[in-house]
Amino acid sequence: MSDFRPLSAQFSVAPQIGIEDVAEAKAQGFALVINNRPDGEEPAAPQGEQIWTACAAEGLAYAAIPIGHAGFSHAQIDALDKLLASATGPILAYCRSGTRSAHLWALARARAGDDVGGIVDAAAKAGYDLSGLRPMLDALSG
């Protein structure tokens, strides 16, 4: 069962998706799926190539911005910014729980100048606590 959680009108996050979730993403109007999970992190989960193949079959764009144990970098935020700028419709990003995807979106939006309080509230409504990330969000927005 799909667990897509909107952070904005154009960006949603999800815990690990399965092949069947790709068709549901298409049905819900998503244009791009972003994988924030490194391949091999959970061998039993669908890997990037499997999700990419399912996306291609559904006519969805696919991109990977893996976020591993090293955390977040400006290069990852830059990559998300480029995808946000070129998106032709709503985006669905996923990782193991959706947290890394929510954090990356929050970092990108804060750096773009969005209201940090609004970012934190949007994530909370989707079930993600950004309180530990708040100092970084504030620093990026300044």
UniProtKB/TrEMBL annotation:
Pfam families: BLH_phosphatase. PROSITE patterns: RHODANESE_3. Residues 90-132 form the Rhodanese domain. GO terms for molecular function: hydrolase activity. This is Uncharacterized protein (TIGR01244 family). SUPFAM superfamilies: Rhodanese/Cell cycle control phosphatase. It comes from Sphingopyxis italica.
